[in-house]
């Protein structure tokens, strides 16, 4: 009997360019259905998290995020599915959860640690918060 490949129509990947984010995206590419959508979400921290003292600093951070996502989009050419880049500003975990809900994602995939790794916890702070609070299935990739 042939084993059925697990697949999803819409997958959100938290993406910051880190090794963990790359692994999360690689996993999403193996799970996405034909004609499906991978949402690449980059989140720029809000003032309350990291200090963006002025609009110019935010503008530069947004430009870096746009460049990061565009480079990744250029490297993923497929006629079988769509990759949609989204940039949000705020708390990364909250934006991941909110976007997955609004976009009706079937799955959230995150790397275990991203660029914001500060504490020595086994699971990164963002991943831990998403796993705890999301109302969607979450996969954390090592």
Protein model, in words:
With 142 residues, the protein is an alpha/beta fold. Helices cover 38% and strands 27% of the residues. It has four helices and five strands, in the order E-H-E-H-E-H-E-H-E. The chain has a five-stranded parallel β-sheet, sandwiched between helices. Helix 3 crosses helix 4. About 5% of the residues have low confidence.
Helical percentage: 25-40%
Order of helices and strands: EHEHEHEHE
Helix/sheet category: alpha/beta
Number of helices: 4
Question: How many strands, what sense, and barrel or not for the largest sheet?
Answer: 5 strands, parallel
What is the count of β-strands? 5
What percentage of the residues does DSSP assign to strands (E)? 25-35%
CATH homologous superfamily, by name?
Answer: HUPs
The dominant shape is globular
CATH topology: Rossmann fold
Q: What is the CATH first-level class name?
A: Alpha Beta
End-to-end distance = 30 Å
In CATH, the architecture is 3-Layer(aba) Sandwich
Work out the count of structural domains.
Answer: 1
Rounded to the nearest angstrom, the radius of gyration is 15 Å
Poorly predicted segments: 116-122
The strand line-up of the biggest sheet is 3-2-1-4-5
User: Which whole number gives the mean pLDDT?
Assistant: 87
């Amino acid at each position: 009997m042939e084993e059925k490949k697990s697949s999803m129509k819409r997958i959100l990947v938290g993406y910051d360019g880190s090794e963990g984010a790359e692994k999360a995206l690689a996993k999403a590419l193996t799970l996405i259905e034909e004609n499906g959508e991978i949402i690449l979400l980059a989140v720029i921290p809000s003032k309350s998290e990291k200090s963006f003292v002025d609009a110019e600093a935010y503008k530069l951070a947004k430009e870096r995020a746009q460049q990061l996502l565009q480079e990744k989009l250029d490297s993923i050419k497929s006629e079988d599915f769509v990759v949609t880049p989204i940039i949000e500003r705020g708390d990364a975990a909250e934006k991941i959860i909110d976007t997955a809900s609004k976009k009706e994602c079937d799955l959230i995939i995150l790397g275990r640690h991203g660029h914001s790794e500060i504490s020595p916890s086994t699971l990164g702070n963002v991943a831990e918060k998403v796993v705890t609070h999301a109302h969607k299935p979450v996969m954390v990739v090592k």
